[in-house]
Amino acid sequence: MSELLEVRDLDLYYGDAQALSGVSLTVREKDVAVIVGSNGAGKSSLIRTVAGIERPRAGSIRFKGVEIAGLPSHQVCELGIGQVAEGRQVFPTMSVEENLQMGGLLKRARARMKAGLREAYDMFPRLEERKRQAAGTLSGGEQQMLAIARALMGRPELLMFDEPSLGLAPSVVQEMFQIIRRLNQGGITVVLVEQNVAASLKLAREAYVLENGSIVLSGSGAELLADDRVRKAYLGL
Fold first, then answer.
1. What pTM did the predictor assign?
2. What CA–CA distances, in Å, run from 59 to 6, 15, 37, 83, 172?
3. Which of 8, 103, 127, 230 has the fewest CB atoms within 10 Å, measured from its CB?
4. Phi, psi at residue 109, to the nearest 5°?
């Protein structure tokens, strides 16, 4: 399959503090690429930089062969990159349906708003039951479903998840991973940043370990699951 996202030699700083150092990775079309690492390793910084929220000091980010490093986030979204942010970040005082409509306002998706709502409700029936309810009153799992559905309203080709299992009950975590698998099987390319190393590597076609802002290991999900360094550092084995 062709390369959809290419990151090369990416450096990111917050003031004088370096958050990413020479990060390179490749995400192929219709794959699941997983980025694992401990807190503070730079995982969210990488996602935010690809999304256009942070501006890199050096390096290249190419999406479908087009350089996007430094583009504002709204332009990145219009190109077909969606993000489910850490902490869900729904609009709490707006209704479920209003949150979904916000996701469908991109030019690339606006004409299919009605169809997008129907698809969201078919995928997440609980959201339809609560479509007039304020998003801030939903459970954590329901808010995560809403965040995913809102991102899908923008018709992304690449969907990036930042710690989707954070703060969720174990049963809901399993449901989240099943949703991600189903989305990928439906043709969406996925980048998954996740502290649940064992579950995420089982999904991964390609996987990367990020430590102190640098990629220190890469390979297939199965290869990293079998790697003694990963098993010792992240799985306690």
1. 0.92
2. 11, 17, 21, 21, 37
3. 8
4. -120, -15
